[in-house]
Structures are given as structure tokens and as C-alpha cells.
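Support request from a user on the community tier.

User writes: "When I paste my C-alpha cells into the form, the page sometimes reloads and wipes my input. The last time it worked, I copied everything first. Here is what I submitted, just in case something in the input itself triggers the reload:"
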């Protein structure tokens, strides 16, 4: 059983330490938490990529790679994620756990030191970021933003979120937008980096065999030069969102051969609410598993969709449905997707559907502890939400959810926005 310890190392700098003997590698990460905003999202996303290009001690990627090779071939990579209306940017590293080094040498302390070096001592030019590094990584960021349209399934969900929550932070993409990204310079990016250092809460993460007190000491030493600015708390509760009187309808035409029908619902609950486990189970019954109503009925039985699934954003309190359809079947598919929801609201859920969904959710939660990356991702979400509940406790709550609670969860679901990506000739 993993032991989880939460500690505040410095004001606004917190560490989640997961002490476990399950893995042969350890994970070490540091994330700046920043409210999602169109003005800062692209700059925040670019900062870790530029930092990763070189430091004072290791001025280029070649020397950084050599330093990582010395740590048994460890890795430290930039990561950019969103959790609800919070943008999480920083680094995630993976190293051989100290318990498995050939000569008993320590990896944790030098790995933490290298992480601190990347965060606090970048290579500079004229007092700001190097122009070559900034230009190269800015170009990569712009390319990545433009390339999002190539994955039509993900693009349709991205556009659904933009339309459904227009004007709200939730609509802002994790990479920001192309215009703000293209306008970044070494100077204004440096200013944004300094603002993150001084004002952004920082979440640190460790998972491995080292005792929590040792992890704390290693990271305190690595981050001792972190500016002691006033760190602003990230709002734990997202912007309130109310479904419109009538569902918003949006169509977009691109050069596609398969339509993408995406539908957004408000669900009346979020991760902080006591009935959240019932929402998790409701989503699984509706479209979150291969035994769900959308998968078995809309896709398999009626063949109205190439795929049909639902996902719950536990921070914002919305459920998003993604489906791939033939252009001439979109209305029929839409009607059936909504009909399945109405059946759930009416309590038309077979015992095997409910218990299959429950087993799927509980199994997914408990198996999270078998994966380093999924475990880190779970705890990042808990950190952002300010929650301390572990996987087993959440799984136990899901196991206790009743049929009546699931039906109540469904009753709060309201269609908000429909986005359809059609072909140019459709």
C-alpha cells in the first residue's frame, strides 16, 4: 500500500510524496499552476520547452542529455496540461529508483538538483531567454497549435468546448492560440517566466522508495533559490456555467469524409461534490465504457456511428459526447444519443449495465496505482482540486453508489451545445 504525504516546502510550494516499492523507477515532477487565460496560455506553454533547451551549467540539449545519461539514462520532459480551468506547466522526470542502482549510489538528490537547475537557472542572452531557443520553440508551438485540426476527433471536442464555454477559461486550449504564440519574444516570454516564478503556486510530485523526509530535503535544496513572491491561489471552483434556454447549434465544414457529432451537457456536479461518484458511474453507464448504452446501442446495434462515447470533465462539471457519423445519418444519430440519455433518466438501466459500469470504474481506479504516469496524473488532479482522497477511498465510494443515486445524477444532465463537423460537400 502506497503511503501518500503532503507537505508545504515553501509558501505556495507543495509536495505530494508517494512512498511505494511497486516500481523500479521513480517519478519526480514540478508544475506551475496558472489560471487558464487566453493572454497567458501560449506563453505558459512555451516556458518549459525553452527552459529545457539549456541551463547555465548545461547550456544546450546535448550537455543536458549527457547529464541525464549519468543518472542511469533518466529523462526530464516538458509537460503542458489543463485541469478544469487551471493550466499546469512544468517538467516530469523519470529515473532509476535508488533501490535498484548497481552500486547503491543515490539518484534522487542529483535528479532533484537537475530539475531545480532547469527551473531556476536557464541559459540567458542579454538578461532574457536566448533568441535562438525562443524562436525555435515558438515555431514548434505554433506548428502544434495548427496541427490540432489534423486529428478531427480531438478537434471536434476542442471546438465543442470553445463554443459551449465561450468567454470562460474552460474554452482556452492548453497550448493557447496561434496569435498569442506567434507574438512571443525572448523579452515578453522572460517576463511571463518571472511572473510564474514569483506568483504561481507550484506542485511538486515524487513517487518511489525514498522516505518522504529525504524527498523533502532534496527538493528544498534544489529549489532554495526560488523567489519568495506572493503566490496567488488558483481558484478551486471553476467559472459557473449555466445551460442556455435552448441548445446552441454549431456547424463547421472542413475537408472530411466522416462527420464528427459532438454534444456537450451540463451535469450539475463536480469533483468536490458528494455525489461525484454517482456522476462517474452515470457517465460509465451512458457512454464511458464498451458496455455502455452509446457503445452497445448507437454504435453496435443500430450502426449509427463509427464510434460513440462520453467523457466527464470532473472539474468543470460537463459531460462531452464524441461520435463519428455518416453525413446523412447525423440527425438519426443525434436523436438516438439523446434517446439513450432519456432512457437513463427514466431509470431504464439493466442490472448488468449498472454493475458492468461499476466494475469498469472501480477497476480503472484501482489499476491506476499500477502505472507511474496514471498515478501522477491522478494526484495532479487531486492537487489542483485541493483534495486528499486516495484511489481506494474513491473506489469504495463508487462501490457504494445506489441505482437511485445514478438516476438522480442523470436527472441533472442538460443538453447545452451541439457541434457538427461536416464535409464541404455535405
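"...and here is what came back when it finally went through:"
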Amino acid at each position: 500500500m502506497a503511503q501518500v504525504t503532503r507537505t508545504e516546502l515553501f509558501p505556495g510550494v507543495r509536495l505530494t510524496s508517494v512512498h511505494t516499492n511497486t516500481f523500479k523507477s521513480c517519478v519526480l515532477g514540478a508544475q506551475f499552476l496558472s489560471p487558464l487565460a487566453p493572454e497567458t496560455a501560449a506563453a505558459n506553454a512555451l516556458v518549459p520547452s525553452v527552459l529545457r533547451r539549456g541551463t547555465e551549467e548545461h547550456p544546450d540539449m546535448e550537455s543536458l542529455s549527457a547529464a541525464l545519461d549519468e543518472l542511469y539514462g533518466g529523462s526530464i520532459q516538458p509537460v503542458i496540461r489543463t485541469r478544469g480551468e487551471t493550466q499546469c506547466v512544468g517538467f516530469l522526470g523519470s529515473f532509476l529508483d535508488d533501490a535498484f542502482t548497481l552500486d547503491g549510489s543515490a539518484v534522487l538528490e542529483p535528479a532533484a538538483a537537475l530539475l531545480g537547475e532547469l527551473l531556476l537557472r536557464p541559459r540567458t542572452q542579454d538578461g532574457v531567454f536566448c533568441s535562438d531557443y525562443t524562436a525555435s520553440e515558438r515555431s514548434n508551438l505554433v506548428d502544434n497549435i495548427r496541427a490540432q485540426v489534423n486529428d478531427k476527433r480531438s478537434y471536434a471536442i476542442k471546438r465543442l468546448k470553445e463554443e459551449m464555454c465561450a468567454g470562460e477559461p474552460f474554452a482556452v486550449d492548453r497550448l493557447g492560440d496561434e496569435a498569442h504564440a506567434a507574438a512571443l519574444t525572448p523579452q515578453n516570454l522572460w517576463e511571463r517566466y518571472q511572473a510564474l516564478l514569483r506568483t504561481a503556486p507550484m506542485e511538486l510530485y515524487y513517487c518511489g522508495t525514498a522516505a518522504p523526509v529525504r524527498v523533502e530535503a532534496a527538493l528544498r535544496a534544489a529549489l532554495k533559490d526560488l523567489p519568495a513572491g506572493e503566490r496567488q491561489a488558483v481558484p478551486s471552483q471553476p467559472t459557473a456555467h449555466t445551460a442556455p434556454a435552448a441548445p446552441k447549434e454549431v456547424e463547421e465544414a472542413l475537408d472530411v469524409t466522416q462527420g464528427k457529432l459532438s454534444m456537450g451537457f451540463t451535469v450539475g456536479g463536480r469533483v468536490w461534490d458528494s455525489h461525484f461518484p454517482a456522476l462517474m458511474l452515470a457517465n460509465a453507464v451512458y457512454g464511458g465504457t464498451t458496455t455502455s448504452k452509446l457503445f452497445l446501442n448507437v454504435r453496435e446495434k443500430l450502426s449509427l456511428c463509427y464510434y460513440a462515447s462520453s467523457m466527464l470533465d470532473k472539474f468543470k462539471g460537463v459531460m462531452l459526447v464524441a461520435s463519428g457519423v455518416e453525413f446523412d445519418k447525423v440527425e438519426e444519430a443525434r436523436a438516438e444519443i439523446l434517446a439513450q440519455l432519456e432512457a437513463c433518466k427514466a431509470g431504464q438501466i439493466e442490472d448488468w449495465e449498472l454493475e458492468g459500469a461499476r466494475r469498469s470504474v472501480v477497476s480503472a481506479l484501482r489499476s491506476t496505482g499500477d502505472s507511474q504516469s496514471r498515478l501522477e496524473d491522478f494526484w495532479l488532479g487531486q492537487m489542483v482540486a485541493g483534495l486528499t482522497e486516495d484511489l481506494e477511498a474513491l473506489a469504495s465510494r463508487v462501490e457504494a453508489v445506489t441505482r437511485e443515486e445514478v438516476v438522480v445524477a442523470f436527472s441533472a444532465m442538460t443538453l447545452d451545445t451541439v457541434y457538427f463537423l461536416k464535409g464541404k460537400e455535405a
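Agent notes: The reload is a front-end session timeout and is unrelated to the input. DSSP finds 15 helices and 13 strands in the chain. The mean pLDDT is 95. Escalated to web team.
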